[in-house]
Predict the structure.
Amino acid sequence: MEIDHKIYRVELKHTFGISRSKNDWYDIVIIYINDGSIIGRGEAAPSVRYNESTERIISVLNKSIQLPEDCSDRQVIWDFVFPQLQGIRALEAGVSMALWDWWGQKLGKPIFELLNVDASRMPLTSFTISIGQLEEIGQKVEETEPYSILKVKLGTPGMDKEIIKEVRRHTDKLIRIDANEGWEKDSAFEMAKWLADQNVEFIEQPFPANDLNATAELKQRSPLQIYADENSLVANDINQIRHAFHGINIKLMKCGSLEEGKKMIDMARLYDLKIMLGCMVETSVGITAASHLAGEVDAADLDGNLLIENDPYSGVKIKDGRLVLPELYGSGLKLNPSFKELLY
Ligand SMILES: [Mg+2]
């Protein structure tokens, strides 16, 4: 058995703007677990917000990851490999996905079944409108035609209302707001009140993750529910933040494994928190792996692969705005033939 990897540049259809950054492309890393007959695939999409980079991931992978002597069991391999990943969550997530994909194919089961996730009712997914020029919004809204929920990135001082007004000139679909820590304390309550009249479902991460008090205060007064993203990375965070939020956003790239994602779902349920399953800008490798958890969440925001021009794989699909898992074992990925020179 071997662990292999390839760096891959994802090109975005539109510049991806959020409150703190702007990108036209990202370098992600595809991770392969190959036992000579079965190939498991995972993806690491590092985030600058969490001090991660492709370079750091590659430097760990190039030092070569050691495998245990007995490579017949997923858990044994994971326990052996995990300490070598140096706490880089995106890399952990990539290896976790690849191992689960390999293991599912080996056992002849889809990942959701191995994780005891009920996938009989898959959620609708939202489609993201990132921050850009106001004039582009009409075109972006047109592209969201297949999706019934939009996620609009805000957190641009002075511009947020203009953005929503412009979106509303083109559609009356339900909107989720993601401020990516970009709101000011003074104007947040007024903004939440205004948004409540704009067919908005909830607000994600209004304030910086270290300003939990302001968030708790807003939660008390806001007519809209508040979800944590930058404040909810792993299961251990939930107990400390649950007083300040109505719900959490779970991402594999933040929590580091499918098992940890499942643990977060179970813990959030226990505390009566709403659950969203989100993503970074990722190919179908990451998005499909995450979709195996989607049957148990309230809201899915798994559109990373739809925002890119050059998705090399296919896996989870969208039908009438809803996620549909492939009927295959493991994650259920297929390499799109035109990418055969680059990846496998
Ligand atoms: Mg977010």
The chain has a mean pLDDT of 97. The chain has two domains: 2-109, 126-338.
